[in-house]
C-alpha cells in the first residue's frame, strides 16, 4: 500500500513549503520539485498537492500581490522545481514506452471515476467505511479549520481549496469503499495537513480549563475507540468491506471472534 509513503511525502511537502517561502533557497525549490514529482508518481491524483506551495499563506490581496512579485523574482527556482517534477514524470512515461510499448498504460483497466455522482455521505459517515465513523478525531481537525490563527493561518487557503477537491475526487471512484481496509485509507495522505487545524483547536481549547478538559476527554475517547476498532478489524470482528449498522451494533465491544461464551 502507498499510504504510508504518501503520508511521509506530504509531511515533507509542508516542511519544504514553509522553508522555501521563508528563504527562497534553491535547495528547497529542488526538494519541492522532487517531492511533488514523487507524489504524482506514487498516485497521480496527488499532483493536486502542488496547491500547497501555490496557495500557502495567500490570506489577503496584499499577500497575493506579494507572492506574485516573489515568484517572478525567483522564477528560476520555480522553473527548477517544475523541471525536476516534470523529469520524474517523464521517466515514468519512458518506462511505460520501453517496457509496455505505449506512452501511457492504464493500471486500472475497466475501473473509473463518476464525478457526477460522488458518494460523499457514505464516504464520510457510513457504517460501511465512513471516514469520520472510524476516525472520529478527524472531525476535530475539520472543526479546527475555523480556529487557525497566527502562522498556522497560512494553511487556510490550501485547506479550503484542497479538502473539497480531495473528498470529491476520492469518493467519485466507482468503488468508493476502496476494497478491504479499515476506514478511509485513501485519505491518510491528508493527515499531515489536517494536523495543523487539529493543533490549532487544541491550542485554543486549552486556554480555558473547562474547554481543555472537555477536549481532553474527547481525545481520550476518540483514541480509545480508534484503537478498539483497529483491534476489531485485525481480529475480523469488523468486516473489511461490508459492515452494516446491525453488525456494528452487535459487535461494538467485542474483543474476539467469535466472542467467548458467557461463564456459567
Any chance you could write out the topology, listing elements then pairs?
Elements: H1 3-23, H2 26-42, H3 51-55, H4 61-73, H5 75-100, H6 120-125, H7 131-134, H8 137-143, H9 156-170, H10 191-205, H11 209-235, H12 245-250
Summary keywords:
globular, mainly alpha, 0% strand, 264 residues, 12 helices
Give an account of the 3D structure.
This protein has one domain (about 5-250). It has 12 helices and no strands. The protein has helices spanning about 5-25, 25-40, 50-55, 60-75, 75-100, 120-125, 130-135, 135-145, 155-170, 190-205, 210-235, 245-250. The chain is globular. The termini are far apart.
Which segments are poorly predicted (pLDDT under 50) over 5 or more consecutive residues?
Answer: none
**Shape assignment:** globular
Listing every helix as H and every strand as E from the N terminus to the C terminus, the arrangement reads HHHHHHHHHHHH
Largest beta-sheet characterization: none
Write a brief structural summary:
The chain has helices at 3-23, 26-42, 51-55, 61-73, 75-100, 120-125, 131-134, 137-143, 156-170, 191-205, 209-235, 245-250. With 264 residues, it is an all-alpha fold.
